[in-house]
Design a protein that fits this description.
Layout (H helix, E strand, L loop, with lengths): L1 H8 L3 H17 L5 E8 L7 E7 L11 E6 L4 E9 L2 E10 L18 E3 L12 H4 L1 E3 L4 E6 L2
Parallel strand pairs: 1-8
Antiparallel strand pairs: 1-4, 2-3, 2-5, 5-6, 5-7
Length: 151
């Protein structure tokens, strides 16, 4: 009975119902990206500059092109960075202390890093960066906390 009284005043009501129903169905089928990854970085050489952390979601891009990156001041002996609302799954991380704040990992002779750096799972590579599989961590639906030690 109410819809008869509303229909003349709200001719768009059927379209609104359809839109609302479609939105609810889409929300119900959309994947949940509610997992947080907390990264603690230790081994800072000083309190100069920033700590940069890159999150990689594909082996093909590791460690050159991160999916998400964050930077925080190097103002404590252990700094914490939180990546929020990620899809649970496999990731790898790299971190470095950018002491001179030029937004890059400075390298010396033969490409050896001059600033402190590290990878998830304390991964090391042979004559270069580690492989994604060696640095891979699993982000669970409940969230994950890891620690990266800079060298």
């Amino acid at each position: 009975m109410k819809s008869r009284h509303l229909a003349p005043h709200f001719p768009h009501l059927p379209a609104l119902r359809t839109t609302l129903l479609s939105t609810l169905l889409f929300a119900a089928t959309a994947p949940a990206f509610a997992a947080d990854l907390i990264v603690e970085v230790e081994g800072l050489r000083s309190n100069k500059g920033n700590v940069s952390v890159g999150l990689f979601d594909k082996a093909e891009t590791f460690p050159k092109s991160f999916a998400v990156g964050q930077r925080v001041p190097a103002d404590k002996s252990v700094v914490e960075i939180v990546f929020r609302d990620l899809k649970p799954g496999s990731y790898a991380l790299s971190a470095y202390q950018d002491e001179n704040e030029n937004q890059e990992l400075d390298r010396g002779m033969f490409g050896i890093p001059k600033e402190p750096y590290g990878f998830s799972r304390d991964a090391l590579g042979d004559k270069g960066p580690p492989e994604f599989r060696d640095a891979r961590i699993e982000l669970t639906e409940a969230g994950t906390r890891i620690r990266i030690k800079l060298r």
